[in-house]
Amino acid sequence: MLVLDLFCDCAPLIELNPYSVNILLAGYDKETGPSLYYIDYIATLHKLDKGAFGYGSYFSLSMLDRHYHSGMSVEEAIDLVDKCILEIRSRLVVSPPNFVIKIVNKDGAREYAWRESVKDGAVSTA
């Protein structure tokens, strides 16, 4: 009964401050191969070849449209991701300090590399 009372007390607060979540979901299927999906905050699902969201997407999607092609090697894809990161860092007023690149393929998901623009604990003395 306590849980129900607590839920009833919290329900109006949840409705006033809902969370909006967008996600890029990557996976690999033995029969169909690699897949990338975009799911937006109202649960709309789109299958994509390439994708980005958030403020940085305004700059990175144009880079992806210009340089992406099917059948890219891992090296070509990483180079394209680096171009997108450079574009975001140079054009977005408040850009994320660090980026993590992950690879999803038939062997699973793994962290590939970090792209750091701000080192932990680095303080300018100038």
Keywords:
two-stranded antiparallel ribbon; 126 residues; 5 strands; disordered N terminus; Glutamine Phosphoribosylpyrophosphate, subunit 1, domain 1; Ntn_hydrolases_N; Proteasome subunit beta type-2-A; disordered C terminus; Proteasome_alpha; alpha+beta; 3 helices; proteasome
Q: How would you characterize this protein structure?
A:
The protein has 126 residues and is an alpha+beta fold. It has one domain (2-116): Aminohydrolase, N-terminal nucleophile (Ntn) domain (Glutamine Phosphoribosylpyrophosphate, subunit 1, domain 1, 4-Layer Sandwich). It is 35% helix and 28% strand. The chain contains three helices and five strands, in the order αβββααββ. The protein has helices at 2-16, 57-67, 74-91, and strands spanning 23-29, 33-39, 45-48, 98-105, 108-116. A three-stranded antiparallel β-sheet has the order 1-2-3, with no helix packed on it. The chain has a two-stranded antiparallel sheet with strand order 4-5. Helix 2 runs antiparallel to helix 3 (74-91). The longest helix is centred in the middle third of the chain and has 18 residues, at 74-91. It starts with a helix and ends in a 10-residue tail after the last strand. Mean pLDDT is 83; it is low at 1-8 and 120-126. This is Proteasome subunit beta type-2-A. It holds the Pfam family Proteasome.
Shape: globular
Largest sheet: 3 strands, antiparallel
Number of strands: 5
Distance between the termini: 61 Å
CATH topology name, in short, is: Glutamine Phosphoribosylpyrophosphate, subunit 1, domain 1
Task: Give the strand line-up of the largest sheet.
Answer: 1-2-3
Q: List the helices and strands in order.
A: HEEEHHEE
Q: What is the CATH level 1 assignment?
A: Alpha Beta
Total of helices: 3
**What percent of residues are in strands?**
25-35%
Domain count, please report it.
1
What is the name of the CATH architecture? 4-Layer Sandwich
Gyration radius, in Å: 19 Å
- Please name the fourth-level CATH homologous superfamily: Aminohydrolase, N-terminal nucleophile (Ntn) domain
